[in-house]
Amino acid sequence: xxxxxxxxxxxxxxxxxxNPAGVCILAAAREPEWMLSVAREMNCSxxxxxxxxxxxxxxxxxGVSGEVELCxxxxxxxxxxxxxxxxxxxxxxxxxxxxxxxxxxxxxxNLIELDFPTDPVSPIDPPQGLAEALxxxxxxxxxxxxxxxxxxxxxxxxxxxxxxxxxxxxxxPDGIVVTARSDDPRFTIFSRFFAxxxxxxxxxxxxxxxxxxxxxxxxxxxxELIVGRQERQPKGRGGTIRMTxxxxxxxxxxxAVTVLRGEVVDWPRxxxxxxxxxx
Length: 279
Hints:
The protein is α+β, with helices and mostly antiparallel strands and 279 residues long. The protein has 7 helices and 18 strands. It has helices spanning 32-42, 72-84, 130-134, 155-159, 165-171, 210-221, 274-278, and strands at residues 3-10, 19-26, 47-53, 56-63, 66-68, 94-98, 101-108, 111-117, 122-123, 140-143, 148-151, 176-181, 189-195, 200-203, 225-231, 238-246, 249-254, 256-264. The protein has an 18-stranded mixed beta sheet that branches. β4 and β5 form a beta hairpin.
């Protein structure tokens, strides 16, 4: 049976912007080594693998370096594919069982809203050398379960960052989101995300960063809705995330557009040596 695969640009409604994610719809669970090989072939920051179950879907995410614990843009992309292909009815809730627990996605007009757990940050003393690796002295530095978070003085400081990725990888094994108040009245905040230790120097739009950003900025600003803009610099792709804090959960809303549809060709193993396969 053919295995359908898609590439979806998440947190945007314009093709070739946002954050591209692979989405693979499986008839049955596959071994992690196979999923990692497919993710490396897709060469997106993450590829999602969904298997239908009685009460929803099992969902796993793989980057080029291995399986990840939580991924927002690939979850949004998966929900988009399930509705677009008729695997879910238009008004149905997408329910996912993941390494980060039960997650859901719902359609709200042109938006898809994910329901994710929050990840509040706690202040930490900046590790010695972090400011030099990052390229700025943050006004705040904190740590959540998933990532590190740094606030900069203004949006221009965030846009102007040119980190030393080889040095930064030693300080942030999972990633760091750098954020500031937005200068653009359409948005509340502006952010960038770096994860050089996991082969993703800079992510264009990071859905899971909302788990940290929403509780942090709601506490700072008192606003119920945080509209975040993230862009890879310089002149890179980016997208918009709408975040609504609800206790220990956060609604993460955005749009998505499919840019590629195909099938995975499941080649049989040759049994030959690595040298023979390369030849």
